[in-house]
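Memo to structure team: turn this sequence into structure tokens by end of day. - J.P.
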Amino acid sequence: MTTSTDFTAALRPGPDTVDLTNDFTGRTAIVTGGASGIGNAIAHALAGRGARVAVLDVRADGAAAAAAELPEVATGVHGGFGCDVTDEDSVTGTVAEVVERFGRVDVLVNCAGIAALAPAEDLDAATWAKTIDVNLTGTYRVAQAVGRHMLGAGYGRIVNIASQAAHVGIDGHAAYCASKAGVTGLARVLALEWGRRGVTVNTVSPTVVLTDLGRAAWANENGLRHQDEIPTGRFATPAEVAAAVLFLAGASSAMVNGTDLRVDGGFTIR
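Reply from structure team:
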């Protein structure tokens, strides 16, 4: 007969305490789209907590310049790498280069993305295909390439930047909404397949973020109306998105897997 003691002994233990410092000393992080905007803020946040950061961007010169501006860390220098997430050879080659230089990858933040907007009836096939290729398939390519290394090491944190557009319909955002909804679906499957092997996968879904591009796109009457639709009454800052990523990328979030953290001021609760 199986007793309650037998069942108790079979329960797998977790940590008795959780480190809340979000210290990334000794960790290596890859941030795609890290040369500017949200990705750059995330790269700075990770480096500020001790991580060595590999900044990946389609613009190799921009990646190198961004990496050079990151805070110094005790465990080594950062690096900038040109990488086109729509090119499988570019992705696998760049990831291999990062692993060769740094010896490991502990954190991946997929932030590379584009937003080409048009009414659905006017959206051309090339724009649709490019949006899906960068935002969704590009995320998959990098997650797969990095994930293989993480699975071999038995540890990893993957955070994919999605959007409030993954959860609600927004005028003119057919391709963007579809791509970001795909990012959240992909994360759930990867989380299911890889969680038991030490690799967690989550997403962050921001509202409009006040990067230079965000300000340029939303500093108009439409932007002011959208801002008023958010319960907190404003858009997000890059630092606020980076703070959410730090939590999901840290050791303390080991039991957060396959979830979406919305940094949207409550917009999607309506």
